[in-house]
Design goal:
The protein is mostly helical and 331 residues long. 53% of the residues lie in helices and 7% in strands. The protein has 13 helices and five strands. The protein is globular, with a radius of gyration of 20 Å. The chain binds adenosine-5'-tetraphosphate. It is found in: Cytoplasm.
Amino acid sequence: TPRVFSGIKPSGGLTLGNYLGAIKRFVGMQGQMETLYCVVDLHAITVWQDPVELRHATREVAAGYLAAGLDPAQSILFNQARVSQHAELGWIFNCVARVGWMNRMTQFKDKAGANAEQVSLGLYAYPSLMAADILLYHATHVPVGEDQKQHVELTRDIAAKFNHDYKVDFFPQTIPVIDGPATRVMNLRDGTKKMSKSGESDMERINMRDDADTIAKKFKKAKTDPAALPDTLDELRDRPEARNLIDIYAALSDATPEAVITEFAGAGWGRFKPALADLAVDRLAPISNEMTRLMDDPAEIDRILTDGADRARAIAAPILSRTAEIVGLLR
Ligand code: AQP
């Protein structure tokens, strides 16, 4: 049976990249298949987090899920640390995955940079825990942004190697679901880097909870090139910043980038950027306001997450038990 799993790290405030690349698409899959959406706090601590801020960010990601339209009656919403089976299966997968596989992960190289000896062992093993997150539920579909494609492919490799090593047909081959115009929302100041929660400058990103003035200012200051908007998508090949703003407009308005180009044919950035800001405010403000309302009652968020964790555990526990049995662990 098809089953969807995905998650977001509570490593800061949610960005427009998280919204378009993940949450908006999570909502679209709800009701079509069984859906589990996790706040992956164990992944967040691969980089040091202030404990008070981590608790806040965990609840805030959950608030973002709820405010954007995820419904606890239709989806299982929970945080990873409440379901201990994630860490347990993660360890088993650390023993299945190969060091050479981890060495090929481009996200690790990007995040560690020249500092690879000093980052946590957890950051290095992150993709193996992510494989556990997915396979603990035998999830078949994982909606993610383009940046996570390599990790989902690694998940498939781990499943295949486990099945091969233990001569079983136990873990499924998961499909990464990467579609739509904004699977890789780029940094507003550098169109060759992705927009990240923890990027250096706040001007690089739109946060889901930015107010209207901030959103307008950030788009106004967003890097572009001197040329006007193009007539065809082809012209955008070497203009990553321009391409990014058009893709964002397309994703927010559920249109194709081609339709956006037609709509703004001949216009300059002076007309396009304010229109983009208005559109972003129109889409984000209701979600942001609802997040603020939800965050006033953290006990209610915790109740939803605890209930979701109980339901997630009911699926995870038998799969972990069976995995341990296959491996030969006495429990
Ligand atoms: N810029 C983006 N464009 C499209 N999708 C994105 N996602 C993240 N950034 C973009 C998608 O959001 C989901 C959750 O990602 P995550 O928060 O778990 O991890 P990340 O990709 O490492 O996100 P950040 O924002 O870059 O966090 P930091 O800065 O803390 O490392 C994923 O599906 C991801 O594809």
